[in-house]
Write a structure and sequence with these properties.
With 70 residues, this protein is mainly α. It contains three helices and no strands.
């Protein structure tokens, strides 16, 4: 299905296919946190603490400084 501008907005599939998709999603563990190495989890935790403490810089400021390396 699409809207008046032609943008796709929905799909129609048989209910049997929908139920199979739902079952597969239930079986799949979508939580990847436990798969991350300890040093990555620690890095994320440190970043969250820095953010809460206001120790961050705006995106545009960082991009201005480092865009020459991209």
């Amino acid at each position: 299905m699409s809207n008046e501008k032609g943008k796709k907005t929905a799909v129609v599939i048989p209910i049997k296919d929908w139920e199979e998709i739902q079952e597969k999603l239930k079986l799949k563990d979508n939580d990847f946190w436990e798969e991350l190495p300890v040093h990555v989890k620690e890095g994320i935790g440190n970043a969250q603490k820095q953010s809460l403490a206001g120790e961050t810089k705006p995106h545009d400021e960082v991009m201005k400084k480092y865009s020459k390396y991209l």
